[in-house]
Amino acid sequence: MSGQIRANIRPGIEVDIVLKQDQRTGNLTRGTVKDILTNSPQHPHGIKVRLSSGQVGRVKHILPQ
Predict the structure, then answer these.
(1) Distance between CA 5 and CA 7 in Å, rounded?
(2) Is residue 1 assigned to a domain?
(3) Taking the model in full, what pTM does it have?
(4) Which residues constitute the domain of residue 29?
(5) Has residue 15 been placed in a domain?
(6) pLDDT of the chain along its 65 residues, tens only?
(7) Is the residue at 14 inside a domain?
(8) Does the residue 47 lie in any domain?
(9) Burial level of 36, CB count in 10 A (0-12/13-18/19+)?
(10) Is there a contact between 30 and 14 (Cβ–Cβ < 8 Å)?
(11) What confidence score (pLDDT) does residue 33 get?
(12) In this predicted structure, what is the pLDDT of residue 46?
């Protein structure tokens, strides 16, 4: 599923995000979604979320349940 569409993302699912400081390198951080921070229904760079660890970034991959 695409991390660019808000409807695909909900609290509690596991995702890979790219943190602001990792945008140039593309390093991914895995975690569980706590909050969805993007209000628009879609975003070309990925929906911005806060993980349960407190890290904030844009969703690149949604992991299968």
Answers:
(1) 6
(2) no
(3) 0.93
(4) 6-62
(5) yes
(6) 789 999 999 999 999 999 999 999 999 999 999 999 999 999 999 999 999 999 999 999 999 98
(7) yes
(8) yes
(9) middle
(10) yes
(11) 98
(12) 96
